[in-house]
Design brief:
Structural class of chain A: alpha/beta
Strand order of the largest sheet of chain A: 1-2-3-4-5-6-7-10
Strand content of chain A: 15-25%
Oligomer: homodimer
Radius of gyration of chain A: 18 Å
Largest interface: A-B, 29 and 29 residues
Largest sheet of chain A: 8 strands, parallel, barrel
Distance between the termini of chain A: 15 Å
Number of domains of chain A: 1
CATH class of chain A: Alpha Beta
Chain lengths: ~280, ~280
């Protein structure tokens, strides 16, 4: 048997067990001996914010992050303002749920002007920093795989996310690193610059997510694999992130219809086994 | 009516009209008033190499490129040698077909060691350079979209392709730029560095391909769109490539089941119209 300390950093991102509501997922994590859970806003809304906060608090689990804020670019000012307001709600929810980290999926293109959309992301994050700081929430920019550039996130490399985080932190010297990056291996593993950028992210790594890249890719959105089933050098990434000073939770976030059809408790057991074999 | 000179650089990559064999495609290009065609090895093999060379020669069309060499990484030496031999065949075929450019799709992962696979690509290209030069063929490294990194091409950015081409050209000072890059907007449009890298590619741009990125992506492999139907700033790319000194053919290469189901002559008309509206 593996001593439980080895999984002390392992966190279930609740999308990995999609059929479970917040309470189910909380209880599942307890049964599996986990210490962390990562939450999604839609799942929290479905179960109710206060109810979610209560069951998580009562479970003793720590919340590694809330997914997601972001989605800043929009074609007109009033829509952009709506997005800002929604990010403020996300920050409130994160605080209520007891996590210190809001993951930002920054948003896709409102029109063909990619550079303008990237500027809207920068400006949007800058606008929510003071409110996030007031509520004790750090903002983690998650670069997404370039295949999501048009419709989900114009921030597509860790280099870009680092640039934004470092610039924003410099622009707000009154706060201590309000912005950082969330590194998900699925999104960044292909990048020839990624290990250099992980080193550069020292001190601003706010989250680390693992899963795997399987082939043929089953689906653009729901195509992630269980650790060990694909092509990513997971341990190498975990060691690089550790070497850059990150010692926080490691979330397993897998969107995959086959895993979603399995009994969720079995998914958690498989996840623990693969985490110890492939990641830790 | 648009004067025909405006489409003087337009080339039909024959995969855009997938149902046509080489002769059909050649005749279709003539009917459409095109001057260029881009060929694929499987289509050429299906119609016969000598027959293909003859119908193309008789048509007066110029062959913009032959797709594809590459596929270098493999788990053992004998398999890697087979790939090298196949590249020599591809070089022979390119010479027979009367093009000066072989497009390299460099190959995916034989195992999880991404760095080793990239080294195998470098070594493989180095090995075929003398033979390619002997036969009058330039080698164009085409970076593919990162979503193909595991199974098709570990070369995923124009920066990487430039690095390889520039290093290889330095390693073979006896030849004049034996290696260059082929830039397909579908593969590189998302890259924050792409316009800097296009400038850096000055003098080694061996091909330029256009299509569009449509959402939702219909399919990982057959998900490309007709120019103007998606999100890419096509004219900006064409102007950047021109500014870097490229004045060669512009291939339209679209893998898309909906377009493949249309009458191919209609696809060519649409392609010309969109090329003039969106690209040129």
């Amino acid at each position: 048997m593996t001593p439980p300390t080895n999984i002390s950093r392992l966190s279930l991102n609740q999308y990995t067990t999609f059929s479970w509501n917040v309470e189910d997922a909380t209880k599942g994590c307890q049964r599996a001996g986990l210490s962390w859970i990562g939450l999604w806003r839609d799942k929290v809304a479905e179960y109710g914010l206060e109810n979610s906060a209560r069951v998580v608090r009562e479970s003793g689990l720590q919340v590694s992050s809330l997914c997601r804020g972001g989605m800043f670019p929009a074609d007109n000012k009033s829509e952009r303002q709506k997005r800002i307001d929604d990010n403020r709600h996300a920050i409130d929810e994160a605080a209520t749920l007891g996590t210190d980290t809001l993951v930002l999926v920054c948003g896709g293109l409102p029109n063909k002007d990619l550079e303008a959309a990237r500027q809207m992301v920068y400006d949007g994050i800058a606008e929510i920093i003071p409110y996030a700081q007031e509520r004790g929430i750090k903002l983690g920019i998650e670069p997404l795989h370039p295949m999501y550039c048009a419709d989900r996130n114009v921030i597509v490399t860790l280099g870009q996310a680092n640039d934004f985080a470092l610039q924003l932190n410099t622009a707000f010297p009154e706060y201590q690193t309000p912005v950082g990056v969330v590194i998900d291996v699925f999104h960044v593993w292909w990048d020839p610059q990624v290990f250099a950028e992980i080193q550069r992210a020292k001190g601003i790594i706010f989250g680390f997510h693992v899963c795997d890249w399987i082939t043929p890719l089953p689906d653009v959105l729901k195509g992630r694999g269980m650790m060990g089933d694909g092509w990513i050098q997971l341990r190498k990434f975990r060691e690089a992130v550790d070497a850059a000073g990150y010692d926080g939770p490691i979330e397993v976030e897998i969107f995959n219809e086959t895993l979603w059809a399995m009994p969720p408790d079995d998914v958690l057991e498989l996840m623990k086994e693969r985490y110890l074999k492939e990641v830790y």
